[in-house]
Design goal:
By secondary structure, the protein is mainly beta. Helices cover 3% and strands 64% of the residues. The N terminus is likely disordered.
Length: 239
């Protein structure tokens, strides 16, 4: 089970490092998650997510279900990037069934070299955290862009509310590929208490974008700082 009192799209700098303008207005994603190990029962989950991009920003809706965990939760959210002088300001808000609410705010500056910081807060109601980073947390990031399609960034996300020992460190590289395709690699180093034991683990996510389709595969140990390991496979379509 990985319902936690957390959960927002908190990878602000990573989002800010990519192209701000969406080429296509809609994105539909289906994700399949598999949890195992840690002396717990294996389980699976399915998440479907649709996002629409316009001058209002990104508005999205999603639904997660896991029959083994007996969990089903719909959720909706909004985020947008605003240019304010030399800064990019990125607010987000999210709500889900069960009374969950959360919000975040981040700022980023710089074009070739860039840096950012942010803060996320929730009302601590139960929530299926499918963003996986600590989300009642602060964030700081630095990076370098060769172009709008090629960048490298380093980001730390650290809980500063209920579990201040929990921290994620992301090293993300994005690069264009032949025929207008793109690839990104996210190396994750995490540390924190899992059942009163301090652990250090490394995860990896690889995404590949074709013209209008994309695929993503992720390996994430001690998922959400529980004893279990998660594999995630997602496919999506932009249109």
């Amino acid at each position: 089970m990985y319902i936690r009192c957390a959960g927002l799209g908190f990878l602000f700098a990573l989002a800010g490092s990519s192209t701000q303008a969406e080429e296509l207005s809609y994105k539909f994603t289906t994700g399949i998650y598999a949890l195992s190990g840690g002396g717990l029962s294996n389980s699976h989950g399915l998440d479907v997510n649709i996002r629409q991009t316009s001058t209002l920003g990104n508005i999205w809706g999603a639904w997660y279900r896991s029959p083994e965990q007996q969990v089903s939760q719909p959720r909706v959210g909004w985020d947008r990037s605003f240019d304010v002088s030399h800064w990019r300001v990125m607010p987000s808000v999210q709500t889900a069934s069960g009374g969950f609410w959360g919000g975040s705010l981040s700022v980023e500056t710089g074009d070739t070299f860039f840096a950012g910081m942010g803060l996320g807060r929730t009302n601590l109601h139960p929530y299926v955290n499918l963003n996986f980073d600590p989300n009642d947390a602060w964030m700081a990031s630095v990076g370098y862009r060769w172009s709008s399609l090629q960048s490298v960034s380093l980001q730390v996300v650290r809980d500063n509310r209920q579990n201040p020992d929990q921290q994620h460190l992301h090293l993300v590289y994005r690069t264009p590929m032949p025929d207008g395709e793109r690839m990104s690699v996210d190396l994750l180093v995490k540390r924190g208490l899992v059942e009163d034991r301090m652990v250090h683990r490394t995860g990896l996510t690889v995404s590949y974008e074709f013209t209008s389709f994309f695929i993503r595969l992720a390996y994430d140990p001690v998922i959400n700082f529980t004893p279990q390991t998660m594999w995630r496979f997602s496919v999506g379509h932009r249109y």
